[in-house]
Write a structure and sequence with these properties.
The protein is mostly helical. The chain has 12 helices and 2 strands. A two-stranded antiparallel sheet has the order 1-2. Belongs to the insect chemoreceptor superfamily. Heteromeric odorant receptor channel (TC 1.A.69) family.
Length: 387
């Protein structure tokens, strides 16, 4: 027996992280969302202030962009998710029945769905945990670097992030207040950067799982000659339903995919540059260069997210076009003209795969991931020669 009772936990995990931001589609908390938006806008202004003041120093400009591109991406993701809350609430209502055991006729269908459900659950646990660890270490890297100065009493008021407040920091109490303000970035990066990604990707994987289930249903249902008409009707309607769900994701989140794609190109380039630069320095605590470790975790977070997008885009292409083969192998041509026409329409539609695109410009697939990494390495080479 295959138990589906835990499959719905994927919704619970997404709910926890999006509720923190006030962005859970079924229960939007507008005051919390506005609070975090105001916080992020103030932070971005302080980051811009730091960039303007240090524009003549390339090393500081690179450090500023490495941090603040990510935070700007988080703000963009929050606005995109808020805009899409109503349609995603309908999306969640539409997939409620997919978590019921009665929806599946045999063990093959259950296993096909659980395969993608488990991938989604693993991604959420690993990605968000990695985000939390990377954000925490990145925040405290300044304190690790200045540990000896702290012990000797010659501590400079370097902030954990490259921002410049609207006032000068001249005493420890003011410094600690600003650091406490910036501490809120830790849960915000974890939930704001990873939360929207986890939600969109798990919903895309849910569609992949349901397409795989439909392929098995075609092989099973179309062998039943007694209820052939009702089975054909249910298959066509289910196919149309899944196409609609995939188009909802694509139409509402293609700008999020574009933001993630472009952001990854620059973040990967800038972070690798910082890691290489810091690996050549002697800033260590007990022989450990915490900056390099922080940047390595940062790179892992960025790469794992874009790899997940591209892999899931590839899965969606594979499963949507796989329906064509399942329909073709069902002896569709030995039936009445009306049934043959319906199934041939489904096969024709399956020739055009369901896709996720980056702003309608490029399709997310494993080939796209390769292109992103190559482009980022090219920019890194130019940056090292320039700076």
């Amino acid at each position: 027996m295959v138990d589906l009772t835990r499959a719905s936990s994927i919704i619970t995990w997404n709910k926890w992280f999006l509720t923190f931001l006030g962005l859970w589609p079924l229960k939007v908390n507008q005051p919390i969302f506005i609070f975090f938006c105001v916080y992020m806008i103030i932070y971005c202004i302080m980051g811009l202030n730091h960039l303007i003041k240090n524009f003549s120093q390339p090393e500081l400009v690179v450090a500023n962009l490495t941090d603040n591109i990510l935070l700007t991406m988080i703000l963009g993701k929050m606005f995109i998710c808020r805009r899409s809350c109503k349609i995603m609430a309908k999306f969640l209502k539409a997939i409620e029945s997919d978590f019921l055991t009665e929806k599946y006729s045999n063990i093959q269908e259950k296993m096909a769905y659980l395969y993608y459900n488990n991938i989604a659950l693993i991604f959420i646990k690993i990605s968000l945990s990695l985000n939390a660890v990377a954000a925490t270490l990145y925040y405290f890297k300044t304190f690790f670097d200045n540990w000896s100065a702290i012990m000797s009493g010659n501590f400079s008021y370097d902030l954990p992030y490259p921002v410049h407040p609207f006032f000068e920091i001249k005493d420890m109490s003011t410094y600690m207040c600003v650091c406490t303000y910036l501490l809120l970035n830790l849960p915000l990066i974890t939930c704001g950067y990873g939360g929207p990604d986890a939600f969109v990707l798990t919903m895309a994987l849910h569609i992949c799982g349901q397409l795989a289930v439909l392929s098995y249903k075609i092989n099973y249902l179309l062998k039943d000659r007694e209820s052939y008409h009702s089975h054909v009707t249910s298959i066509v309607l289910r196919h149309y339903h899944l196409i609609t769900l995939a188009e909802i994701l694509e139409n509402n989140f293609n700008m999020l995919f574009l933001e993630q794609t472009l952001g990854t190109v620059f973040l990967l380039c800038l972070t690798l540059y910082n890691m290489i630069t810091n690996s050549e320095s002697d800033d260590t605590v007990n022989g450990i260069n915490y900056k390099v470790i922080a940047f390595m975790l940062y790179i892992c977070c960025v790469l794992s997210t874009i790899l997940a997008y591209c892999y899931i885009g590839e899965c969606l292409i594979k499963e949507s076009t796989g329906l064509r083969d399942a329909l073709y192998n069902s002896n569709w041509y030995n039936n009445s003209p009306s049934h043959t026409k319906l199934l041939s329409i489904c096969m024709t539609r399956s020739e055009k795969p369901l896709v996720l695109t980056a702003g309608k410009f490029c399709v997310l697939s494993l080939n796209t991931f390769t292109s992103i990494v190559k482009t980022s390495m090219a920019y890194l080479s130019v940056l090292r020669n320039f700076v």
